[in-house]
């Protein structure tokens, strides 16, 4: 080996200087990496909207209170629930739970029994004496609520919790509206209703019963009210001309149910016919059976698929011995006989007469063809406009054309249920509060809904839905005892645990265990996780395994 070779040759015997290295040392602090994968997408924790939350007319954060119930934090679950809906024990019984109709779990096995957990929490609150937190400060503003039904009571509760002085005025002898006078005891026991109402009264809400408002403008001025919420229920029965004689009894369903609720049930005879296809018709027929009717038949001019009653209401009625005659219309009532005409559907699906008649036995005919609201007392208000059906026209904030006067529940067009009414009360309270305080009334846009196809269900095992106990049929029709029972604490906790937590992280640690780069930092129980993007390569392992789609991959920002 020559001297040049021993000394490096290329430098003629001189040692190489650092500046003459063919490959410079990498800068490990600055600049982009020049080896390994280049991240094109990055994972981000997201919050999607669960379909149950999106479908709830009362605006409940169902997923949140189910999570508390799953962990056994029952009072915290109840407080989360009543932040949106003050009447958990009532809704757990009478709501038709549209939230369950869109539950993603139904595609896996069966929907979460949300209403049974809600009822459990409401009953637990009643047993434990839980009360609403008082408002931190009084606003000095006065609000008049017309109507002590679900919508008016809901608005009053939410307004009182915001610090406003609220008075409810109602024409009835006792508060509750159709919850008291339209829903029978076997669905809503009166002690449950009373407990929920007492909790609202404890907030300082003033209640004036047996007070019919005749001139709203005058009452608002005389009482010095800063705002008004009108929530009068639909108590006026719609009329239809049916030839009848004095041999039989004809009564509207609202009056019939009200009389029974007030302890003054009418004599109905052995054979009762109910004309109509809504939930009120189903209740009227079931009540007639409990009053001693051996035969109760519902006459409805459309088909089962076209009825306005909820399917479970019709099923319960039929289980209790009520017969339903579809595609029939009443043409004459000459007790003890009822004449009906057979109908058929035309090409558009509408019923039309056929000229064929039938005779049914009927000592009493109960008319259940719908109700209307009383709105004449609002016609003295400037700017208020009415729809063709007599309901009040409102804007997106539920305010009428008269500044400071809002309306909801049965007073405005829409579905007439307890839950819808309570939701209107909550919405109105929010907008009334903003209007009184003269603050911007803006809410952020809702998140996208988490759909079933977005979920990765490897995490969840099969779990059968817990069933509520029910009275035997023969025992139901012998009295007004509650038909459906509640579930135990164990069953409620189990049912809450069936929730898939669609679209929202529930800290299962799956992402933490799946990340090959140790790029996920756990922030502690209840605080979730964060990404260390200096380590993350964008491999999407966390996204692929997340069972609830609480992680989304987004393009790397440029």
Please render the helix and strand layout as text:
Blueprint lengths: L2 H5 L33 E5 L5 H5 L6 H9 L3 H9 L5 H7 L3 H4 L3 H4 L5 H15 L13 E5 L3 H12 L3 E5 L8 H4 L8 H12 L4 E3 L7 H8 L3 E4 L5 E2 L11 E4 H9 L9 E5 L3 H12 L4 E5 L11 H9 L3 E3 L2 E7 L2 E9 L5 E11 L2 E4 L3 E2 L32 E3 L10 H20 L35 H4 L12 H9 L12 H5 L5 E3 L6 E3 L9 H5 L5 E5 L3
Parallel strand pairs: 2-3, 2-5, 3-4, 5-16, 7-14, 8-9, 8-14, 9-10
Antiparallel strand pairs: 1-19, 6-15, 11-12, 12-13, 17-18
Helix pairs in contact: 3-4, 3-18, 4-8, 5-8, 8-18, 9-16, 13-14
Biggest sheet: strand arrangement: 4-3-2-5-16
Shape: globular
C-alpha Rg (nearest Å): 32 Å
Distance between the termini: 55 Å
List how many beta strands DSSP finds: 19
Low-confidence stretches: 1-14
Give the averaged pLDDT, no decimals.
Answer: 90
Helicity level, as a percent range? 25-40%
Largest sheet: 5 strands, parallel
Q: So how many helices?
A: 20
Q: Roughly what fraction of the amino acids lie in strands? A: 15-25%
Which structural class do you get from the secondary structure elements? alpha/beta
InterPro entries: 4Fe4S_Fe-S-bd (IPR017896), 4Fe4S_Fe_S_CS (IPR017900), DPD_II (IPR028261), FAD/NAD-bd_sf (IPR036188), FAD/NAD-binding_dom (IPR023753), Helical_ferredxn (IPR009051)
Pfam families: Fer4, Fer4_20, Pyr_redox_2
EC number: 1.4.1.13
GO molecular function, one term: glutamate synthase (NADPH) activity
């Amino acid at each position: 080996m020559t001297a040049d070779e021993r000394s490096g040759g290329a430098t003629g015997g001189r040692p190489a200087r650092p500046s003459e290295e063919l490959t410079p040392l990498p800068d490990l602090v600055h600049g982009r990496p020049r080896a390994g994968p280049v991240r094109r997408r990055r994972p981000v924790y997201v919050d999607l909207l669960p379909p149950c939350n999106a479908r709830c007319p009362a605006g409940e954060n169902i997923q949140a209170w189910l999570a508390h119930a799953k962990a056994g934090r029952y009072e915290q679950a109840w407080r989360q629930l009543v932040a949106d809906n003050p009447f958990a024990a009532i809704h757990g019984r009478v709501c038709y739970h549209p939230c369950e109709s869109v539950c993603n779990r139904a595609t896996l096995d069966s929907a979460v029994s949300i209403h049974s957990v809600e009822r459990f929490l409401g009953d637990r609150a009643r047993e434990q004496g839980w009360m609403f937190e008082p408002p931190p400060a009084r606003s000095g503003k006065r609000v008049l609520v017309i109507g002590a039904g679900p919508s008016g009571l809901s608005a009053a509760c939410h307004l009182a919790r915001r610090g406003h002085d609220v008075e409810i005025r109602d024409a009835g002898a006792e508060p509750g509206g159709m919850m008291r006078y339209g829903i029978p005891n076997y669905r809503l026991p009166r002690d449950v209703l009373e407990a929920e109402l007492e909790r609202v009264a404890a907030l300082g809400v003033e209640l004036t019963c047996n007070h019919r408002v005749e001139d709203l403008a005058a009452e608002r001025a005389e009482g010095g009210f800063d705002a008004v919420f009108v929530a009068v229920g639909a108590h006026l029965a719609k009329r239809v001309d049916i030839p009848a004689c004095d041999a039989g009894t004809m009564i509207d369903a609202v009056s019939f149910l009200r009389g029974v609720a007030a302890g003054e049930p009418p004599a109905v005879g052995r054979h009762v016919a109910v004309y109509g296809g809504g939930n009120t018709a189903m209740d009227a027929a079931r009540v007639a059976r409990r009053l001693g009717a051996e035969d109760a038949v519902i006459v409805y001019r459309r088909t089962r698929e076209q009825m306005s009653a909820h399917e479970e209401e019709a099923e319960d009625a039929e289980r209790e011995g009520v017969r339903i005659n579809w595609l029939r219309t009443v043409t004459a009532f000459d007790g003890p006989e009822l004449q009906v005409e057979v109908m058929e559907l035309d090409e558009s699906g509408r019923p039309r007469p056929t000229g064929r008649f039938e005779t049914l036995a009927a000592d009493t005919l109960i008319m259940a063809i719908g109700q209307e609201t009383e709105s004449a007392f609002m016609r003295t208000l400037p700017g208020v406009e009415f729809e063709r059906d007599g309901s009040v026209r409102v804007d997106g904030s539920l305010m009428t054309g008269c500044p400071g006067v809002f309306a909801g529940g049965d007073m405005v067009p829409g579905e007439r249920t307890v839950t819808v009414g309570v939701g209107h009360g909550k919405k109105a309270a929010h907008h009334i509060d903003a209007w009184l305080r003269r603050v911007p009334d803006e809410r952020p846009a809702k998140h996208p809904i988490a759909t079933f196809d977005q979920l990765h269900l490897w995490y969840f095992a099969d779990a059968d839905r817990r069933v509520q106990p029910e009275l035997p049929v023969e025992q139901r029709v012998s009295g007004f005892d509650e038909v459906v029972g509640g579930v135990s604490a164990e069953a409620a906790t189990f049912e809450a645990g069936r929730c898939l937590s669609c679209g929202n992280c529930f800290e299962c640690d799956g992402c933490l265990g799946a990340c090959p780069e140790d790029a996920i930092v756990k922030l502690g129980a209840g605080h979730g996780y964060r990404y260390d993007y200096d380590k993350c390569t964008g491999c999407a392992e966390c996204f692929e395994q997340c069972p609830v789609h609480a992680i989304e991959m987004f393009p790397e920002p440029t």
